[in-house]
């Protein structure tokens, strides 16, 4: 998955948990980067102590409102409050003391908060490149929910179909996905799915809220030469018609075998099966983060003029 992220050049499988200067030198890295949340060793020491002391550490801000805890909460609670058009009053975070602990008493890193899509964020993730003459424009559509290795394998296979592919991924709106997947799907809303798919190196462009049926208008608008779908079921449109009728009629439709059986449903089932473990892990993680936060606050207070220690 990480290899498929377009900003990643090389992977070190099984890297040590604590990054040492020796590790950085071994892989010719100038510095080590981590988000601005705290990670600790078992003895409660900062994981990046050594690289920080050597001036070979950089930090970037964590994306607000995107956390594993929140995603797991959506799966377990079966809520739809995360869907992009949902009324604020229905937000489960205000009505539960399980995963959504409300504004008080949760860590800003592991806890939940609302993700807000901005044009800056999209620009940061987008390729910004238009298709060039000689590129083969390929269209794929779907939910791409909880963007996983099945999606990556599929997109990689599609990417191999042309010498210079320009892949456009059409993402269905939350209500559309909910119509054909049921339950509280999608787990990630359209904003979150957009960024996940844009981060993939095989994708050049995303249609945010693609129509379910791949129409003549859409194909002409983007000058699509090929439309692909994996081996997963194609659910008929509302009127019972095949959403790929037009590309099939034009003879530009191709089924692609990703070779992966992973689905969003399987991931959710796996997580529900392990729910107790997940809850315990998250509670422990959050308690640890809260303790660090308290300690940081105390240090700050002690630094203030007028405090007994100053
Ligand atoms: O299910 P979803 O709409 O997210 O799938 C998006 C595309 O990825 C579809 O073409 C689907 O067939 C493909 N896919 C795949 N192999 C998987 C999972 C999805 O080829 N394991």
UniProtKB/TrEMBL annotation:
Pathway: Lipid metabolism; Phospholipid metabolism; phosphatidylethanolamine biosynthesis; phosphatidylethanolamine from ethanolamine: step 2/3. SUPFAM superfamilies: Nucleotidylyl transferase (SSF52374). The keyword Lipid metabolism applies. GO terms for biological process: phosphatidylethanolamine biosynthetic process. Residues 273-302 form a coiled coil. CDD domains: ECT. InterPro entries: Cyt_trans-like, Ect1/PCYT2, Rossmann-like_a/b/a_fold. The keyword Metal-binding does not apply. Keywords: Coiled coil, Lipid biosynthesis, Lipid metabolism, Nucleotidyltransferase, Phospholipid biosynthesis, Phospholipid metabolism, Transferase. GO terms for cellular component: cytoplasm. GO terms for molecular function: ethanolamine-phosphate cytidylyltransferase activity. Belongs to the cytidylyltransferase family. This is ethanolamine-phosphate cytidylyltransferase. It comes from Alligator sinensis (Chinese alligator). The gene is PCYT2.
């Amino acid at each position: 998955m990480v290899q498929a992220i377009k900003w990643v050049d090389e992977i070190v499988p099984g890297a040590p948990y604590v990054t040492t200067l020796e590790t950085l030198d071994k892989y010719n890295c100038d510095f080590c980067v981590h988000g601005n949340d705290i990670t600790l060793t078992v003895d409660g020491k900062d994981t990046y102590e050594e690289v920080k002391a050597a001036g070979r550490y950089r930090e970037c801000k964590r994306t607000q409102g995107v956390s594993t805890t929140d995603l797991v909460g959506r799966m377990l609670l079966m809520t739809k409050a995360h869907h992009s058009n949902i009324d604020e009053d229905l937000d489960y975070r205000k009505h539960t003391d399980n995963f959504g602990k409300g504004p008080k008493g949760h860590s800003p890193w592991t806890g939940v908060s609302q993700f807000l899509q901005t044009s800056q964020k999209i620009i940061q993730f987008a390729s910004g490149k238009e298709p060039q003459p000689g590129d083969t424009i390929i269209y794929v559509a779907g939910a791409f929910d909880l963007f996983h290795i099945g999606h990556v394998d599929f997109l990689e296979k599609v990417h191999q179909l042309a010498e210079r592919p320009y892949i456009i991924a059409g993402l269905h709106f939350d209500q559309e996905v909910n119509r054909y997947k049921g339950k509280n799907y999608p787990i990630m809303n359209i904003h979150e799915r957009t960024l996940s798919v844009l981060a993939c190196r095989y994708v050049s462009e995303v249609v945010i809220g693609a129509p379910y049926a791949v129409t003549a208008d859409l194909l002409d608008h983007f000058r699509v030469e090929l439309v692909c779908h994996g081996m997963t079921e194609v659910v008929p449109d509302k009127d019972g018609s095949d959403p790929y009728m037009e590309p099939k009629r034009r003879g530009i439709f191709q089924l692609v075998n990703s070779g992966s059986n992973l689905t969003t449903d399987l991931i959710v089932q796996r997580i529900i099966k392990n729910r107790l473990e997940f809850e315990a892990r998250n509670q422990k993680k959050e308690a640890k983060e809260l303790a660090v936060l308290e300690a940081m606050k105390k240090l700050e207070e002690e630094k203030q003029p007028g405090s007994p220690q100053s």
